[in-house]
Each structure stands twice: as C-alpha cells, then as structure tokens.
Write a structure and sequence with these properties.
The complex is a heterodimer. In chain A, helix 1 packs parallel to helix 16. Chain A contains 19 helices and no strands. Chain A has one domain: Up-down Bundle (Sodium/glucose cotransporter). In chain A, about 75% of the residues lie in helices and about 0% in strands. The relative contact order of chain A is 0.21. In chain B, about 25% of the residues are buried. By secondary structure, chain B is mainly α. Helices cover about 60% and strands about 0% of the residues of chain B. Chain B is flat, with a radius of gyration of 21 Å. The chains are: A mainly alpha, B mainly alpha. Chains A and B meet through helix 5, helix 7, helix 10, helix 12 and helix 18 of A and helix 1, helix 2, helix 3, helix 4 and helix 5 of B.
Chain lengths: ~450, ~100
C-alpha cells in the first residue's frame, strides 16, 4: 500500500463518519431501529445482501472454489434454495409479522407463547451473534495483518470503532445506507479482481487443459449422509430452504430490514430483489475464485508467495497443509493490482466486515432494549428509550471487540460449542414462529 | 413450545460434527450439517404438537383482531412466478457449468 491507497481508506472512513452525523436525528424506536418505517426496497435489498455477505464470501468462498482441496463450484449449491425461501417468507412469514408492528421479532413469540420462550430465543441470538461477529472481525484483521504487515490490533479497532460510531449516531438509516454503499464497493471489487485475474491468466499462457473438471461440477446427487458426502442437491434444497427461511425471516438482523420497509409491497420487492440478485453475485465471486485459483497453478511465484506468507504468519497451518488458502485473494490483490485499486479493494474488505458488524450491533441493541427494558406493561418514555438504545449500541460494540480479542485466536471449546448451538437453532426458531402465527391452541 | 425447541436442539447437537469433535466422541454418525436444519424443524414440530395434545388445559393466548390465513390465491402473484422460474433457471445453468466453463 502506498499514499494513494491509504488516502482512499482514509476518505472512506471520513465519509462513513460523516454519514452517521447526517442521519443523527432519531426521535424514537421506529426511527432508530426501523429507519422511520420509510425505507424503499433498493437500499434495503442491498443492505440485506451486504449483511449476509461477510469476509467469508469475499475471501474464503473464492479460496474454496479455486484452491481448497475438495472444493469447487459446488459452493453454488448453497444458493439453490434462496428463491424458494424468499417465496416462503413472502407468503407465510411477512403478513403476520409486519402487521403485528413489533420492533424485536421475539416480542411476537411472547404474545402467543410464554415469556420464557421469548427470552430463550432472544438470549441465544444475543450471545451467539455477538461472539460470532467478534470472531469474524478478528479473522479479517489477521488476514490483513499477513498481507499489509499492520498489527491486527489496529485493524480490529479501526473496523469496530468506526462502525460503532456511525451506527450509534445514525441508527438504522445510517446502517442501511452504509450497507448499500458497502455492497456496491464490494461488488466493484469483485469485478476488478475477476478482470485482472482473467487477463493475468491469459498472459501466463492460460490453462493448458482448461479448468479442473472436478472443480466445475456443481450438482452432486449424494444424500449428505455418511463421511465425505457433502453438497448433495437434495440436502442443499431442503436444508437450505429451512435455513434461509429462518435466517432471512426469523432472525433479528435480517427481519429488522424487512420491518423497516414502508409497506408490504416494498417487502415483496425487497425479497424478490434478494432472491434474484444473490445468485449472480455469488456466481461472480465463485468464478473469480476459479480464475485466480487457476492463476496459482500456472504462476509459480504467486504460489510461492502464498506459501511464504503462510509460513511466516500461520506456521501451524504451514506445517499441516503447506498453505492457508484464505490468503489467495489478499495476496493476489497486493501482488498484482496497481496502486489505487489496492486501496479500493482494501476498502472492499473493510466494507465486508463493517456491513455485517453494523447490522449486528444495531439489531443486538434493538433486541436488548425491547426484550429486557421495554417489556411488560410499563413502556419507556421516548427520551429514556433513546438513551438506553444508544448505550446498548456502544455496549454491544464493545462486547464484539472484546470477543474479537479474547476468542478470535483461540480454538476454545466454549466458542465451538456456542457456534454449534446457534447453528442448530435455525430449525426450531422457524417452527416457533410459524406455530406462533398459525397454531390455534396454546 | 419450549419442549419442542429444547428436544430439537439437543438431538441436533448430538448429530453435530463439531460437538463430536469437541468431546472427542465418534458416534459413527456423519451427517452433512445442512441436514440439521431439517431435523430441527421436524423434531420441534412433532414434539410441540405432541406436548400440546397431552396438555389439554393450557390457556390459549390469542391476539385480538389478529387472524391470518394462507389462501391459495396468495401464491398466485407475479413475484412467486418469477422466483420459481429463476429457481429452475439457476438449476439448469448450474447443471451446464462444466460445459460452459470447460
């Protein structure tokens, strides 16, 4: 990185701080957590996508497609169930949820079942999401440290503090518009990498035998039972349908975006846009991974550089596998892209992290305020509500930073267990909501 | 409902690969994790219905003026058709990716 790249990063940061300031007028919960219920489908659908796309999509998925052993374009099978899940949410989940006028979606559960059900779902959401997001920020920081030689402590602090400040000040509007801008930067970054990767591959003589046919195979017919049977089409369709219906419809981070819409028509447009746009975006980053993975196989110096960086920064991984595949894209950016574009791509990586973090802290505090402070008969006054809301944005921001530092590097069993628990909750959460909407008995 | 959630989560955790690794037990069950979403839905649904069938005297909490029903017509909208067509489109496209990129 040179002065030009750093200026781009600084400009980006300044812009986001300015945006938080611009959206600082927030009177009550509808404003702060639901953007005044006035938002249109375009920023909301970009925000939905940006929240879901994290560093994983930008760094790990292309590495899975292009370089990882046993990986390949079968990553795309994750996308198959998305349009179906959008239909399910559109018809089954949205009408009752939107009509009920809740801010925290778990409030609805209490209306039909008991306080304990609401609190269990809410607490699992809060703990697991805060920890997972912290660990995600750490993962990005550690990869940036390897290619930029900037200590990960600074990167974690820059990503988190900037995000907390604009989310704290601007509320949901700042988060959604920020996500929309970040999504556009991210997509531009993907196109840049694809373009340069393809040209470099041709300059290096191209692939003599084309892409590895095994990596190109998307559709597998295995049933996903038994060792090594993964990514089969049947489990991906059924499991994916329930996973996405639960994630996009019954998870506070995503459902809050739906509740921020002007009316039900806007939600339909937003879900339609998300259903249609996700596949092309994923296809672009998978293709980019395939192309850059191909480049690794024909450019020995690129291969060596990934191996050397692994050896220097991830010695354990080097001893085990010889290279950390997640370094493929960052090393590519630094090694091959001209200055200026490096800056844009770094901003892209920061955007991937910040868009997920901003939505997380905003939703976490919505849930905390609604489920713990604003519950029961006595409701908070607007002034007190805003005070607690803003305080809890800062609180959750700090928790995310703390979990990045405390748990990011460790492979502790506690974290693994928390992740496992939260990942098995999607099915039951979906059932809870569907029963809450339609089941007649108690 | 609580019974449904808890039993589904417990069964799923037993099936989960991560948990088997954490506790260093190998039950000989290898299920691709995406299936856990299906088992979660099925188990919690079955248990919730079973428990509610056996406890007949629980007070029903209803929300006044709140009645939602899904009708067949709800599915007859253009968004649903577009998404269904798109779903088939991406399946066909993905099937031919080895030919297109090869």
């Amino acid at each position: 990185m040179n002065w030009l790249d750093y200026s781009i990063v600084i400009l980006y940061i300044a812009f986001f701080l300015g945006m938080g300031f611009f959206f600082k007028e927030n009177k009550d919960s509808k404003d702060y957590f639901l953007g005044g219920k006035s938002m249109s489908w375009f920023p909301l659908s970009l925000s939905t996508m940006a929240t879901q796309l994290s560093a994983i999509s930008f760094i790990s998925a292309p590495a899975f497609v292009g370089l990882k052993l046993g990986g390949g374009m079968k990553w795309l099978t994750f996308e198959f169930a998305v349009p179906l899940a959008m239909i399910f949410i559109m018809i089954v989940i949205i009408p009752p949820l939107f009509k009920s006028g809740v801010v925290s979606i778990y409030e609805f559960v209490e209306k039909r079942f008991s306080v304990s059900t609401r609190l269990v779902l809410s607490i699992v959401f809060q703990i697991s999401r805060a920890l997972a997001t912290g660990v995600m920020v750490y993962a990005i920081a550690i990869i940036l440290q390897a290619v930029l030689d900037i200590d990960f402590v600074y990167t974690i602090l820059i990503i988190s503090v900037i995000t907390i400040v604009y989310s704290w000040q601007g509320g949901m509007k700042a988060v959604v518009w920020g996500d929309a801008i970040q999504m556009i930067i991210l997509f531009a970054g993907l196109i840049i990498c694809l373009y340069y990767g393809w040209n470099l591959l041709q300059e290096n003589g191209g692939l003599p035998n084309g892409f590895d046919p095994e990596r190109l195979q998307v559709i597998n017919y295995n049933l996903g039972i038994g060792e090594g049977n993964e990514y089969g089409i049947l489990p991906m369709l059924l499991g994916g349908l329930f996973l996405y219906a639960s994630y996009y419809g019954c998870d506070q981070t995503q459902a809050q975006r739906l509740l921020s819409a002007k009316n039900e028509k806007t939600i339909k447009q937003l879900l339609l846009a998300n259903g249609l746009l996700r596949f092309p975006v994923v296809l672009v980053y998978c293709t980019m991974g395939l192309v850059i993975g191909g480049l690794v196989s024909v450019a020995p110096d690129f291969f060596n550089e990934i191996a050397l960086t692994t050896q220097k920064y991830f010695p354990e991984e080097y001893a085990k596998t010889g290279m950390k595949v997640d370094l493929m894209l960052p090393v590519f950016i630094i090694k091959y892209l001209p200055h200026g574009l490096i800056g844009i791509l770094m901003v892209g990586i920061l955007s991937a992290a910040m868009s997920s973090l901003s939505s997380t802290v905003n939703s976490l505090s919505a849930v905390t305020v609604e489920d713990f402070f604003n519950r029961g008969k006595v409701k908070l006054t607007n002034k007190k509500y805003m005070l607690i809301s803003k305080a809890s944005v800062v609180f959750w921001g700090v928790v995310c930073i703390a979990s990045a530092f405390l748990f990011g590097g460790s492979k502790s069993a506690v974290i693994e267990i928390i992740n496992a628990v939260s990942s098995v909750f999607y099915g039951p959460v979906l059932v809870t909501f569907v029963l809450a909407f339609f089941f007649k008995k108690g | 409902m609580n019974a449904g959630i808890i039993s589904a989560v417990v069964v799923n955790l037993v099936l989960s690969k991560t948990m088997q690794q954490v506790f260093r037990v190998d039950l000989g069950i290898h299920v691709f994790w995406i299936w856990l979403n299906v088992t979660g839905v099925v188990i919690s649904l079955v248990v919730a219905y079973a428990v509610s069938a056996f406890t007949k005297h629980v007070e029903v909490k209803a929300i006044s003026n709140f009645n939602v029903k899904i009708k067949k017509e709800d599915f007859m909208i253009k968004e649903v058709y577009i998404l269904l067509a798109f779903f088939i489109g991406i399946l066909v496209f993905s099937y031919f990716i080895p030919v297109i990129f090869g």
